[in-house]
Fold each of these.
Amino acid sequence: MAGYALKRLMTEYKELTTRPPEGIIAAPIDEDNFFEWECLITGPEETCFANGVFPARITFPQDYPLSPPKMRFTCGIFHPNIYADGRVCISILHAPGDDPTGYELSNERWSPVQSIEKILLSVVSMLAEPNDESPANVSAAKMWREDRAQFEKIADSLVRKTLCLPASEI
Amino acid sequence: MRISAGWIFGGSCVATAATVLNAFVVNKQFYPAIVYLSKSNASMAVLYVQGLVLVYLMFQLLKSILFGDLRAAEAEVNRIFVYTLDKCILYFQHLSERTWHAVLETCLAFTVFRDDFSAIFVMQFIGLLFIKCFHWLADDRVDMMERSPVITLRFHLRMMTVLAALGFADSYFVSSAYFTTITRGASAQIVFGFEYAILLALVLHVTIKYLLHMHDLRNTQSWDNKAVYLLYAELFINLIRCLLYGFFAVIMLRVHTFPLFSVRPFYQSVRALHKAFLDVILSRRAINAMNSQFPVVSSDELAAMDATCIICREEMTVEAAPKRLPCSHVFHAHCLRSWFQRQQTCPTCRTDIWQGRNGAAGANAGDAARNADNNAAGAQPAAGLPPFLPFIGHQFGFPQQAMGVQAGGAQAGGQPGPFPHQIFYAPAPANRPEFMNMMPPPPMAMGGPPGMFPMMPPPPIPQVNGTTGNAEPIIPPANPSYNLLTMEELHRLEGNTRDAIIARLQAMDNIMVLLESAQMQMVQLAAVTPLRRNVVVVNTEVSEEEAPATETVPTDEPTQEAEATSSTTPPQPRSIFRDNSFNTPQPSTSSAPPVPSSPSTSPGPSTSSRTPEAEEVRQRRLARLLGENPNQQS
């Protein structure tokens, strides 16, 4: 009998391939190793990240789903809730108990009921609505608050980069 | 800017070749060339580096034989090793923590034995590092068994070879270190010996894990207890490690000085032991909770709902014994257990399971009380206590429950003995649930089967009369379950405040009412017994007819006595408390479901001495008793 975490990841993989949610693709990088996933997230419509396709990597712990996975964007992304190295700071990925930010409600935290799909959907909504109350990237949060135009410009150039488009059309 | 391994090999080989060639060119002959090489520091450095490179190549060869291609996580270890070599050659560059600590500590250890420092010593040190790396690799590889979808035969073959080889190597080095120390006295071999002993413990741990995983793999069903065994194995190994470190520290203190270099690993293993111990405790607690507190869901219930366990996303079957939490969410028992080890909340709604359970207990108590009421007389709101006397309410939690008990007793045909008991047992309604946990479950249906009715011994009516007349408190028989009370609660039970005394008096009043009703029951009994001799089948109509008859016709002596008792009852406590706000609500009597049409028919001789209210209450109670007894008999 294969491991507990492996079975659950296989089930989730099957679900994600049979009924893929809109704007999200996720799969293990290598079918020999189900604990390392790659996913592509399309930026939510009508935001500055619209039309962008952002690659990210999800690393699952050995005791998944009891512990949350870790998620990292592999493209450089400028967002208040994403660290400069791409790590995503979102409450659904934080285990209950330790509260690194002191802002999060326990009912937003990780629980085995959550799934890869829910994580990715939360990340999409995080892209649409950054939480500048507890920023991971302080300069991004500051710019989001004070200089929205500049923030959108940076986001736009990022979207262009992920789509392999030239830097600016004008 | 890590220099790649290939460059190092190439550079090292070229340098060695150049040095050796140079020596031979300069000296022309073999022996002088060797002497030249061993005397020249630069040449020796180049040769040492070459030796390291060769050892590394051997490590790679062994690794590829024993482990094959490394996976991402394991490649980390491999890279660590490359980094270690880099460090040996290129001084502190990109060193990973684990190897860094290993190197640092061993170096620290060698400062203690600096007399022994030699080339052989360095080689031993590097050999130790290699073997450590193999241990770490084996550990990671065994953990991978749980994560990998396919385990091939080759994997098992490799794993067994690795474990056997490592175990053999470790024991060999431990024994050689031991004998060296015995024959030549304490030297750096002690450090090596202990390093290998600890590695031996690691091999043991890996072996246990491997066997457990293998057993799990051979089973087609999921093996729930594996996690528990793994926990115990970890606890055991950590204990061994701690003991080894402690032993090592003691020996080092006796032979040399305090082993500063072993403080960090010692602290780490103590912490790991502590964590393993806590894990075991939490796991045990979770298992206990699983076994004792949460009900197993039946197959019917499973069929009625979505039977997917949301933790493991698999179907729940009855064989897996899914458990229902107080918040009515259902999961696999083993899924819940592993989650409860971390968090004592419902995974879905995050209700605290202990809180939920207490709440449920309170609710159950409330339900019980309500059921008792329903049995007795119909719906009575559970919050029947005066709200400002929550504790006293519990202490003399009389109102609705006692009535329920009374009804139960009445149904059973009257058992006056246990009544005072139950008054003090009466479950408090939901406002004191945590206190409820200490109390035994409320006695619900305490009546014997109806068939026992005629065999009941006659109750001691005259005594009851006496007590009722004097309004003496009935001392409840000593109850074993009071042992559960703490000192504080006992002190609170003493209750000499005004409220407590009022409640006590009230309870006495209630007891009196109970006794009265019991008495009436006995009267009924006395009246019914001759009837039963004549009429076997007694239906409700008969009993309705009977009600006024027994009341009005004072033929039997007990009846008269009862009437006399009620008339002689000093109205004092009643008149004090009946009218004030502490009054007992009289739930069962005010809403008796099958009230026969008796109240107006019986103006007894003693009626004049009572208040009309009390008389009516009495009449209703009588009617109810009459209404219930024949039901039971028929």
Note: Helices of chain A lie at 4-18, 116-128, 138-146, 148-162.
Amino acid sequence: MSLATCLALACAPSQEAARVELPVVVDASRLVDATTDLGWSIHLETARIATGDLEFTIQGEMHALARLWDLLVPPAVAHPGHYAGGDVTGALPGSFVLDWIVGDGDELGRAELLAGNYHGCNIAFRRADELPADDPLAGHTAQFVGTASKDGQELAFAAVLDLDLGAAVIGAPFDLDIDEASAGTLGVQLRLRDDTSGAALFDGVDFAALDPGAGTPVSIGPGDPAHNLVRRALQSHVFYTVAPL
Amino acid sequence: MRRPSEPLLRAFALLAVLAAPAGAAAHDVPKDRRYATVVVSDRSPRTASQRTVGPAEIAASPRRRSADDLLRLIPGVLLIQHGAEGKGQQMFMRGFDAAHGADIEVKVAGVTVNELSNIHGQGYVDLGFVIPEVVRRVTANKGPFLLDQGNFANAGTIRFDLGVEPDARGSRVGYEFGSTLRHRGVFVHAPKNMAKETFFAVEAMTDKGFAAARAARRATFLGQIRLLDSKTHGALDLTAGVYAARFDAPGAVRADDVAAGRVDFAGVYRDDGGGRSGRLFTALRHQLDLGAGKLEQRLHGQLRALDLVEDFTGYLLDPLAGDRRNQRHRFASLGYQLEYRRPLHRTLELLAGGAWQGDVLRLHDVRASVRHEVVSRNWDLGAGQHQAHARAGLRWRPVDRFVLEAGARLDLMAYNVRDRIDPDRRARKVLALPSPRINASVRLAPFATLFLAYGRGLRAPEARAVLGGGATPEDTALDRYRGGPARIVASDSVEVGTRFQHRELVSAGLSLFGTWIDRELVFDHVSAVNIELNRTRRLGVDFDLAVWPRRWLQLRQDVSLVQARFVDSGAPVPLAPPFMSATGLTLVHPSGFRAGARFLVVGSRALPHGARTSAYALLDLSLGYRVGPLQLDLQIDNVTNARWKEGEYHFASWWDRSEPRSTIPTLHFLAGPPLTARIGATLWL
């Protein structure tokens, strides 16, 4: 009897984790005008970011205190015998240009996700080298065009940002329980201001000081002090969300 | 011509004894000097789950290629070799994935061999320097219930006592040949006129392995001599060993690649993984009667080297150079132990002790190219560390049937860590943890005893964890979890159990145990962060039954059931085996015939992210016969030639760069050895 029980128990085969595929789209629903710490109200007419892989992470059994911060989640357990609390368990590999104005609703592809309780999304930045040379984003990482208004003054601006190889947003909020039956669409959202922290994407940029005058738009590009301010903010997770639509 | 077969036939016929009523087993002790009883009668176990494996069971056990394999004789211990023989095994016990030894304390000749801050794994245990022929006894104390159980004993402590029993003393030379082109020679000299502690042993082994990248070689010298045995000055034993080994490291293969036929079941992606291990070990033990008290002190020292090249992830982390990791660990230690016992009263005994060990370490971890050149340096640390403890307790025996042992220990850890990549990074830390321990036994009847135990176990952090997380880029500081501070992980365990022992006929033990860890700290060496995990709880049952129908025959059944869970989520603790069963037979007959059999069943284990391992069953056999000075042995591992996965894991890898890179974990495994056989001959000189 015990032998039979043992043999029956010993017949269980390996079992892969349950996984689903969900479409991922660009979602502009959170991209609304916002005011910076210097009082400039920002309105965007172009918002494009060149990205690489999107990775979706679970927190696993990391202690709740860790959730006070967002997590740097290792891309893999580099030694199979050692347990790591959180992990990348979903991904949408590829090269994308996320366009929150013209491309709102565009499908980026179908992400593959293991069943689990998701808490974060990592977004890898890249340079959009594949774009035609006359595209303002060509060779750069992000492009923002819009207006900044303050005290009745309205200034047009155009910003192109370069991020270093390997730069990424780590831990953009993505709170969703996913199981084998999960369906629906995931939207990648960008916002100009995070209400929780009060931080805004263009914080610290004094558009008036950058105004060349004569109606020429304010230009922000690599090498400018303002570029470094916005580049730093662009890597902060607080301006991104991945949410079910 | 007919004579050799007669004892064999007689021995096989003895199996019919199984049908004989146990009550009729009046043990008639033969006078043959070679006779060795298989009965291990531990008259005063301190906990219900204490298990002692005696010399006869060790000598007849199947699958005894190395001292590592002797750990398999402990009920509820699972070993997984994810390198080749010679690399430290991954160990599991009582719901703990102890990795290479992080939660199982292992002592050899009284010296803890877990390596604090080993670059490859915290508490790394390498038993390659122990020659199985000179292991006299293996004792397991599950749970952290005894005062002398120290760092890493969250799941328990396993002790190897060295020596050669009187019936096996003398000089012998042995040679073993295996179906994996294994050659192993061993010479043991244990002078008959000296104490059982004295021996000299030399071993050399080479093995091609059962598949690619499984080769191993080692050479070992291990000796122990009683230098002094005096009533006034006590006994002085010197143990010394030298060990060198080389081994392959096959890595794990993706299950989907095997299913698609892209890789063989026992295949490898790369054949350049492997390592070297070396150790110089010495210990000087002094035992002395001081009036009514007993003093034992030990001075010990080690030099240690471990080099490893491994790759489990292909090109996932580095698409160009690949993810080979080259680790180098250098370690020198010196330690001193003191134990003193003294009766204070007719019913009361003082138990006191302490220990100190100081280590100097150098740790390297680099990403290496195909030519094993350095691509990037992950770690290059110099560290000094101290482990010390003091303990005191009382053993109270008011009546013959009741024993209570209670006390506490205070463990101290001190680190001084220097980053040699960034000399500005340096950390010092001192940590302390008090641990109460209590165990009690009540003899309910002449053959039945009830045990209760509580204890706090501990695991010290590794030097890298003390140094803390890696440098965080200034402009992303807010986005990164910096991890918890390095601290000692404490566990609280209880055990309630009973043991039934009827003379030398039967012994049965049942223990219910629980272990709770409030917030475990795991150092993740990829992100260089101390990851704090949620509360865990391990609840389980250990059952063991040994029957000795004759003094030369033992039948065993061990069952371990564990539910290891995270308390809040209810998710299983990854990799911990929830079910293990071992059915065994040990036969050491006075005629010279001996045999061992073990049928092991390991239930399916939870992997991270909802995946599960396969379950498996293995049957191992050993047969031996001694005629005159010649001992012949045959060992067959995996008799049914089961196709089994020894190690299974769930992580991401990228081996085929023509396919898209994916960071999503998937099943990987290492094939277990198929049917292998070893024949051996030992000549007693």
Note: Residues 1-35, 469-480 of chain B have pLDDT under 50 and may be disordered.
